[in-house]
Each structure stands twice: as C-alpha cells, then as structure tokens.
Amino acid sequence: MRSPIHPEGFPFIVLFSFFGIIFRIASVRFPFIVKFAKFLSYFFGIMAVFSLYFFRDPEREIPQDPEAIVSPADGTVINIDEVNNAPFINGPAKRVAIFLSVFNVHINRAPISGNVVYRNYNPGKFFPANMDKASEDNEQNSIGIAQGDFKVLVKQIAGIIARRIVCWKDPGSSLEKGERFGLIRFGSRTEIFMPPSVEIAVSVGDKVSGGLSIIAKRK
Length: 219
Hints:
This protein is α+β, with helices and mostly antiparallel strands.
C-alpha cells in the first residue's frame, strides 16, 4: 500500500520532530530558558505538521478518455496563451501555466501516456512563481513526452521559496497518464506546452488537480 506522505518529505518531518522534542525536553529541564525553549518546540512541531501536509501524496482516479490531457499539477491556472516556438515541440504551441501555492499538493504527473524523449535542466533565479518572467528566468526542469507523433512538454519551475526541483524520469523512460514523475518544493509553477490543435478545457482562475482535471483535449 502506497504511503499517503511522499518519501521526499520524511527527512523534513523527522528533522523538525527531533528538534521539537529536544526543545520540549529543554523547556522542562532548564527553567532559565523555558520560554525560549517552549517557543522553539512549538515552532518545530508546527513545521513537522506542515511538512506532513505539504508532502501529502493522494491517489487519483485518472480519466480514461484517450483524447483527454490531464493537468500535470495541482494549483490555479494563471495564464493561457500561445507561443511561437516551444522547446521540444519545435513550433507553435498552446501553453497553460499553473501556480502552486505552499498549500497545494506538489507532485507532478504525466499529462499523457508516452515515452520521455527529452529532458532539459536550466539553473536560474527565484522570482515569485506567479510572475510571467519566472517562466524564462527561474530555475526549471523540462521533460518532453511523445505518444507517436503527438508531443507535449511539461516545465517544472522553482519559485521564490522553492529551492529544489525533483524529477525521477529520464529519456528512455515510459509514463502512463497521471503517473507521478517529480515534485517541486516549496511553492512553484508548472507549465504544459501542447500542439496548437488541442482544445483547451480550462480558463484562467480555475483550480486544477494533477492527474485528475482535464485541461485540454486532442482533436
């Protein structure tokens, strides 16, 4: 049975819990620092609980419609546009940008089934992830997924708080629609680039769930 908490979160949970316990013990044994130690014990306790919440990894019922393209992330749709020359797609593409706050599930999922045939990592800056320039300037990792001639690109973008992008798939790997392929911590942006022929099924401001919400359909 899969853990409801992703293993990436265990080091944070253990570390914060450890310090919470240590300072709780200190508040009892050393009265002269009781207020300071209590404060720190509460702080680390809250951080441990937050880490449990942040790294939650729920199961999802993946839509079986073969024409459906599902969201690669949980969050809020903040931009829908068209670009002239998308990486990997090598031509015009429709783009949907999703902002993930620290309260969203941060697991990234494959929008379609296919083979990973492209991956590119770019170090960069850490502008707020809801700013447009974050798409170009921030640290990011992109993977390209091909299903025959149909290709999509998913871009994981770090934010002002996020300091690590995790991707478990390399070129040569295969993915099923809705399968987990990575995560970003803590607060970020995920973009998906699709061929211009797709029909977008979401609007700016919509809340979406990775692997569950249909964001576009193939024509």
